[in-house]
């Protein structure tokens, strides 16, 4: 018991875990309930620029909470949650039905920084094979998420973007009107009247009922996965897994990555580090991305969910970007506070108010006369300038950032049978012995995936919500590719 008290005290005094601007602090592991073979885990979680609104878009942001534990000095494993023991006033805590994690968010409308103090979740340690006598240590992790409510929306925008979606009109064969998704029912993709199709395609099959189509509510990561988040994940793996999860597996050395603002580095003699913690991670293979998503209890996003998360429920605007119009900045961006937590665009107010902000090839970051070949830190545009609008932040209908530009978004494609077989199962927090995601219906390798949203290396047309030129392209590791996770809700 004495040793347990010391471990609990160290957990309570440990530095807060930081992921962009979200903090978990004051972690405390409670006494065992020997009748239920469970323990409470208490913690505080807070983040900046939180919201819950009862007007359009009727949504909120949240923290996705999951817990890892280890027995003695053993490997870190995923903790199963069975409910809550204490929820502070003004806070909602939704533990998922599979016990993989919980969503924490405001109970009432509000906007601004938020701190949820004294949350207690219940760990069903018996479900994880832990005995009453095992000496355990726990860590609590948090990822900022945004809720995308259930509801109908449209695919495509009648703007002739490359390979964009449209609804087949038997009377007007040249029509490319948007296709309305009004349920999660199976969708026929073909050439018959009312079918979903995309420019350049003929009959490619059916989109099954289980494929997540974006009609059902889901949570989406507010930002692209950062280097810090991947480092944190990586450092909680045994060396045998790290050998597969290291970026050098792709044949690229640390020194070569830095020119693309990618500074993840690991030498097997110490923990992995990065000097650009708030810049999104790139150069990951699909399998490495899936490992992170499985470990966090999330899943990859489908390309239909990408369009819903971007434009919301409003009727599409031809050529629109994630911020809701077809105008994009052509002002060369200059970086300020480079490589700091508040890195931002120094000349954001020089951009006309009607033009949205997104990083693309013709508008890359600059340090004086030097061009920076890489993405800006996650959420940077939202903290730049003085206007703080959806357009200036580059935010989506629901407040999700960088869905147009910065790094491209990994999506499960509808463009091939492998992608269409995806049924939306979530990660369970555990990986294979080799360190790979092992969810049953997740395609492994690049087949079944593509990218949407464009990047700092693509033309601005690739940033449009409907643009699909890379949606069914075999996905490979590279400097322009990033990812974020989602989770269906309720679940």
Layout of secondary structure:
Layout: H1 2-13, E1 17-19, E2 22-33, E3 38-52, E4 61-71, E5 77-78, E6 81-86, E7 91-95, E8 102-106, E9 110-123, E10 136-148, E11 153-155, E12 165-167, E13 179-181, E14 187-189, E15 196-198, E16 205-207, E17 218-221, H2 227-234, H3 239-245, H4 254-257, H5 286-296, E18 299-302, H6 303-311, E19 333-336, E20 344-345, E21 365-367, E22 370-371, H7 390-393, E23 408-412, H8 417-420, E24 449-452, E25 481-482, E26 485-488
Parallel strand pairs: 18-23, 19-21, 23-25
Antiparallel strand pairs: 1-2, 2-3, 3-9, 4-5, 4-8, 4-10, 6-9, 7-8, 10-17, 11-13, 12-15, 14-16, 17-26, 18-26, 19-20, 21-22, 23-24
InterPro entries: CTDL_fold, SUMF_dom, SUMF_sf
Keywords: Signal
Domain Sulfatase-modifying factor enzyme-like: 216-336
Description of the molecule:
With 491 residues, this protein is an alpha+beta fold. It has two domains: 2-145, no CATH class; 221-491, paralog of FGE (formylglycine-generating enzyme) (Alpha-Beta Complex). It is built from eight helices and 26 strands. Residues 1-19 have low confidence and may be disordered. Pfam families: FGE-sulfatase. It comes from Neolewinella marina. Keywords: Signal.
Summarize the entry for a quick read.
This protein is α+β, with helices and mostly antiparallel strands and 491 residues long. The chain has helices spanning 2-13, 227-234, 239-245, 254-257, 286-296, 303-311, 390-393, 417-420; strands spanning 17-19, 22-33, 38-52, 61-71, 77-78, 81-86, 91-95, 102-106, 110-123, 136-148, 153-155, 165-167, 179-181, 187-189, 196-198, 205-207, 218-221, 299-302, 333-336, 344-345, 365-367, 370-371, 408-412, 449-452, 481-482, 485-488.
